[in-house]
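Q: What would this chain look like folded?
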Amino acid sequence: MVADRAAGHGHRRRARLRRHRSQADLVRAARNSRACSHDRGHDRVSQRPQCCGHPTHPAVRGQWHDVTSAASVTVVIADDHELFRDGLRAMLTAADGVRVVGEAATHDQAYQRVLATRPDVLLLDVEMPGIPVLSTISRVRAEAPATRILIVTMHRDRVLANHLRAAGAAGFVSKSAPASELVDAIHAAIDVPDPIRRPELVASVLSLREKEVMRLIAQGLSNDEIGRSLSISVGTVKRHNTNIFSKLGATSRTDAVRKASRLGEIQSP
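A: My prediction, written as structure tokens:
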């Protein structure tokens, strides 16, 4: 029995050692990856937005990976949160058949990176500084029609999704999706037929009067104040509010402002 207990202790000790070695390997790999990223940091496009006009600058080319493969799907990551971009890049770097060729922190940068690198797929966040997301999609589809646009978002907004598809987005994936699902979505995006743009659906969601009401809502005005400002009755303001909420799929004033801003119907407050 003593021998059995000793054997059991030995087995558990070896298992702990294996776990510790595995954890140490992961820490060393993460440190090495961070060190490599630091060495190449001057080529990180997200940190050099001022050089976008020079086609030979490495920050415009966005080619800061050492290993290339003709069979890889090339990707540009566009998100205004650096930590999320870092995690996404690490996830894709570890995946087979995907090569990240650039990054962007604004919609304007995303457009410039696509023109500079001509990636197979643009991973695009909805809420970034700069021009509205619908304008970004339209510009990319017009100037780089071979690039597929995959929306990476936490939002589950049917109205917004319909307009993004109408603008030319090839698909959607959640920011919380596991690596395998993201890689599958990237490969699926390049396999789908050329997305059909529906500019008549993208042009505008709200009428001119509804935009006026929406801008005043964004400024925090009450229905009475909006009515006085536009010389209309409170009842008319309420009808406009109902139409606005219905078109945007909004559940509150705050939600309406957020969704109208995403669609470019109003300037971000």
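The mean pLDDT is 75.
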